[in-house]
Every structure is written in structure tokens, then in C-alpha cells.
Amino acid sequence: MQPFLIALQFLTSLPVRLDRMPEPQAVGRSLLYYPLVGLLLGAMLWLLGTVLENASAPLLAALLLTGWVALTGGLHLDGLADSADAWLGGFGDRERTLTIMKDPRSGPIAVVVLVLLLLLKFVALWTLLAADQRLALLLAPLLGRSALLGLFLTTPYVRPGGLGQVLAEQMPRNTSRIVLGGVVLVCLALGSSGWLALAATVGVGWLSRRAMCRRIGGTTGDTAGALLELVECAVLVVLALGL
User: Fold this and answer.
1) For 22, what's the count of Cα atoms within 13 Å in the CB-facing half-sphere?
2) Are residues 143 and 235 in contact, defined by beta-carbon separation less than 8 angstroms?
3) 148 burial via Cβ count (<10 Å: 0-12, 13-18, 19+)
4) What are the helix (H) ranges across the chain?
5) pTM of the prediction?
6) Distance separating alpha carbons of residues 130 and 123, to the nearest angstrom
7) How does pLDDT run across 98-148, given as a tens digit for each residue?
8) What is the spatial distance between Cα 218 and Cα 152, in angstroms, rounded to a whole number?
9) What is the separation of C-alpha 226 from the centre of its chain, rounded to a whole number of angstroms?
10) What is the SS3 assignment for 242?
């Protein structure tokens, strides 16, 4: 149970309290529960959408997106903002890129990227809700967090110290592959929507990982957060385009 609570505490803003300081092995095993946390977030969004189903599609989309950000505390949006600043300001240099990512301040490019991403999410949600296609509310959070499991499984963690290094070193790799396989099977069983969402996740994940490895030689917490946000957005957009 503790690994699940660690994942819930780290990935959401829910009031989770641990009864003791977790062991490194428990922190590593928490990665296995990332897809489950995503599914839980999706279920909360689905429930919120059901409660507010009488609202117009644009208003419901705005409320769901607000709830989405509130439930995650904006953690991954912060990672996307830092990564955007670093990729532009790093000028292709690894050390400069890593240094900029540690700067808590956000530059203009970070603001632009966040606005564009939230705009795309909002319009995609509006389109899907207008067509009464709510499966995306489950698929986007599920695949966004499953992408993190795949990232840590296949990509070196390049910033020493901290939670990310513990996750990368202590994650049970064989069990992680089984969990990812289960997520893939679930998506395939959902028909065309699941296939499209899975294809978007694999495409964005592959491109993002390649960019990370070329620029900094692996991943950091910020680039992992950026990947999650990009996958969620891609899943919503692709499903909206597929209507």
C-alpha cells in the first residue's frame, strides 16, 4: 500500500499522509502505480463531468480542465515550463540547458508554451464533450502517467540526487514491463479510441525521448513532467481529430 500512497502523494494534490519515511525500494515500486493513479484521476474527472453534465460543452470543458490542474497541483505544467525555457535558452548546450531548468523563474517562452498547451487541451475537451465522447477523460491521464513509467524504464536519469534518481535506480524493471504491457492491452481492447490514444502516446514519447537524449543525455524530473503534459495533450487532440 505504501508505494501506491507515494505515487498518489507525488502525482496529485490529494491530502495523502505517509505514516513513516519511505524506504528507497518503496519509492522505486511507486512507479508501478503511476498508471493506476492516472486512472484514478480520470475517474474523478469523469465523475465531475457527470455531476456537471447539464453545463454547456465549453463551460464543462473549462471546469474539467480547472479541476484537472487542481488535482495535480500544476506540478507537470511547471516541468513543461522549465523544459521549454531550457530548450530555447540552452542553445543546444547540455550544461546550460540543465542549469536553466533549475531556475525557478519562467521566461516568455514558458508562458507561451503553457498557454498553447492549455488552449489545445480546452478546445479538444470541448470538442470531445460536445460529441459525448468521455473515454478521453480516462485515457489521457492513464497514458500520461504510463509514459513516465516507460521513460524511466528506458532512459538514463541525468541529474544526481533527489527522488528521480531513486525512482530510476530502484524501480522493478521486469514488473514495470508487465504493467506497461497491461496498459497496452487495455488500450487495444477499447477499439479505435484506444488505438489512436496509444499511437499518440508512443509517437510523442519516442520524439520526446529522442530530444532529451540528444540534448542532455537522458531525462530529469522536469522533462518527465513535460512528457506527461505533452502526452495528455496529444491524446486529447488526436481523439478530437478522430471524431
Assistant:
1) 22
2) yes
3) buried
4) 2-11, 24-29, 34-51, 57-72, 75-89, 94-102, 108-130, 136-154, 162-170, 173-189, 192-216, 221-241
5) 0.96
6) 10
7) 999 988 888 899 999 999 999 999 999 999 999 999 999 999 999 999 999
8) 9
9) 7
10) coil
